[in-house]
């Protein structure tokens, strides 16, 4: 789930995502305790296409949350691999039936509970090939869990940035971009629109064939209705991905997701993180990349060196130009996600988008690569 970055004025100075989230959890825990104890599913009016699991079901499915089944950890808590029967959803023997990812809310935070509720509400309602499928949930006493389809290739973050992982090919990167764009386009096309608010590489999960799906709807919100131009919200999201006008004002529109998508495009092109990691560099990827993209052929100097030059020059230039449009300072000049999907499909269908095997003859800025 996403990082809560507090009030607008605080956002630019967030240096540790985890600390900030914990701080907010602490504060909200004091002010607003989690709702009183309930037995499994009591008092919930959740979508009936979701399975209400008991805690015992999920203990059995994950072998009592055994550490060897741990597949990841985020701000919300730990994620475990588990197995359930395909038709009854009862716990199954490891290695049989349907593989699931079980997310366990880590503390008694009200914020976490609220994200859990939002996730159940949206994911119970929304079904699309580019959204991770929520199978069910568990609310039992203090425990809050979510059960998703298991995405065997894990997150895009792991594939782009983790050391020792095989580089993602150019064509695969472009397919991932289209999948993500289609997922967002679907959300924005709802009435009222659904604003995702937490697009980032760790929330883009991959199937065995590298089909990309969006996960984590804990921060999603309905967009404006009627004559309203925006929804006013507390600023949440992740530094480096959140649109500057949203960070400054808390005004939420679908354009904010378009900006975050532009950041993900830059990550796909450059293989560098949106925000500097623990080495503490202040500059964001957007700040670093923009001057290069404003110069002719500058894109070749920011391209991921792990591609070994095996990408299309024309394709990379077109994608970089699209990223710049998504990152426009003025949100009204950003394209809609429907326009983004159309542009990406056009770029991909052009024969000039096929990778070129030869070296591009432009020296990438290898020394600067270590910044992200
Ligand atoms: N459905 C899933 N299938 C496979 N792996 C998953 C699934 N859901 C999550 N994971 C793994 O668990 C990791 C943690 O996910 P989680 O959504 O809890 O945190 P995050 O996205 O890394 O951070 P944040 O809390 O800021 O959103 C992911 O990066 C991914 O590797
Ligand atoms: Mg996540």
UniProtKB/TrEMBL annotation:
Entries under InterPro entries matching the protein: Kinase-like_dom_sf, Plant_Ser_Thr_Prot_Kinase, Prot_kinase_dom, Protein_kinase_ATP_BS, Ser-Thr/Tyr_kinase_cat_dom, Ser/Thr_kinase_AS
Ranges of compositional bias, category Basic and acidic residues: 25-44
Xref: Gene3D superfamilies: Phosphorylase Kinase, domain 1, Transferase(Phosphotransferase) domain 1
Cellular location(s): Cell membrane
Enzyme Commission identifier(s): 2.7.11.1
One Gene Ontology CC term in the entry: plasma membrane
Annotated PROSITE patterns: PROTEIN_KINASE_ATP (PS00107), PROTEIN_KINASE_DOM (PS50011), PROTEIN_KINASE_ST (PS00108)
Principal location: membrane
Residues bound to ATP: 103
Residues covered by region (Disordered): 25-48
SMART domains: S_TKc (SM00220)
BP terms from Gene Ontology: response to other organism
Membrane topology: Single-pass membrane protein
GO molecular function: ATP binding; protein serine/threonine kinase activity
Keywords attached to this entry: ATP-binding, Cell membrane, Disulfide bond, Kinase, Membrane, Nucleotide-binding, Serine/threonine-protein kinase, Signal, Transferase, Transmembrane, Transmembrane helix
Segments forming domain Protein kinase: 65-348
Enzyme class, first EC level, given as a word: transferase
Family affiliation: Belongs to the protein kinase superfamily.
Protein name: non-specific serine/threonine protein kinase
